[in-house]
Amino acid sequence: MIGFEGYIEATKSVQEKVPPMKVALLSIAFGLLAFLPLCGQSSQFMDRLSSPSALSCEDAAYLVLSASGGSESTLALDKALSLAQEKKWLSAKASAERPISLAAFSHLAMSAFGLSGGLMYSLAPGPRYAFRELVYRGVVVGRHDPDEKLDGPSALRILNAVAALKGVDL
User: Fold this and answer.
1) CB 3.0-4.6 Å disulfide test: which of 8, 43, 60, 151 passes with 100?
2) Distances (CA, A) of 72 to 2, 13, 129
3) 108 burial level (CB within 10 Å; 0-12, 13-18, 19+)
4) Is the pTM of this model over 0.70?
């Protein structure tokens, strides 16, 4: 096993043998290779988001946490659902593949953007009163069932309106 001093000496000998330009080019190449999986994940996510099928709880959590602009905005897709459940923005029953309801998405969006609600939402914050608050504020337009499954384009419209209420430009 090489001690710390041995590691330093080995590093110095390698640095003396490799020209700085090659080190810079190799660093850039490895940086780009490390970035490639993120690009693929992002395009796959956008494909699922633009689909007319129901939006999963995992995708909804990632979408809202990314758009809210907090420290969660750089969160990985697979960690978004667990963070939303940890903060009690989504039910513990929510699973990665389970479709999200309109009421659950309303609560997630209001919580992530820090929107305050009316009297009932202040007393008992949850999906039911978050949905009712967004209907009152004109974010959810028309007659909708709070338990209906939300698709990606509708989620984007709601998220854009919630962000506008908060004064955030998406």
Assistant:
1) 60
2) 39, 42, 24
3) buried
4) yes
Tens-digit pLDDT string for the chain (170 aa): 455 565 556 555 555 655 666 655 545 544 444 433 434 456 777 777 777 889 998 999 988 988 887 655 567 777 888 888 899 999 888 888 899 999 999 999 999 999 998 898 889 999 999 999 999 999 998 889 999 999 989 999 999 999 999 887 76
3-state secondary structure of 9: helix
Closest of 42, 147, 134, 8 to residue 125, by C-alpha: 134
Q: Tell me the one-letter amino acid at 45.
A: F
Q: What DSSP character marks residue 102?
A: H
